[in-house]
Amino acid sequence: MRLLKLCFFAAINNYQGWGTILLLPSLIRHFNVREVGGEGTNCETVTQGTQFFLLAFVSGAAGLGRIASSIIRKKIRFRILYTSLAVIILASYLMLLLIEENLIVIVVTTFLGKLVYGMISMEKNYISYDVRYFGKNGMAIGSGIMQGASSMAAVAGTALVSFAS
What we know:
- By secondary structure, the chain is mainly α.
- The protein has helices at about 1-35, 40-45, 50-60, 60-70, 80-100, 105-130, 130-135, 140-165.
C-alpha cells in the first residue's frame, strides 16, 4: 500500500510539473492570438520579447521551490505542508481556468504551480531513497517502480499539453 501511495504521489507530481513546462508557452500563444484578434500573422502570435523573460521566470520557480522545501521541511510536518501545497496548486489552476485572458494571471498561477512542483519533487526524491520507508529488502524494487510510474506520468503530462494545444 505504501508503494501504491508513493507511485500515485510521484505520478501526480511529475504529471503536473512536466505538463506545466509546455502549458505556459501554449497559454501565451493563445493569449497572443486573442490580443491580435485572429487577424494577424503567425509572427504576431508566437512567444516574443518580454514573454521569454516570463518563461524563464516561471521555469526558475521549480529551483526556488527545491530550495524552499529543504528549509520549510524542518519546520512544518509533511501532512500539513503538502496538503497546503496541494490546495495552492488546485487554487492556481482554477484561477488559470477561470481568468485566462490576463497574461499576469497566467504567469503568476503557473509560477505558483512550478514553485509547488519544486517543493513536492524534493520530498518525492527524499522518500524514494529512504530505507525506512521501503525497508532494506524492498528498497531497490520499490524505488524503481516509483520512478517508472513517475516517468510515465511525465510523458502523459507532456503529451496531454502538446496534443491539446
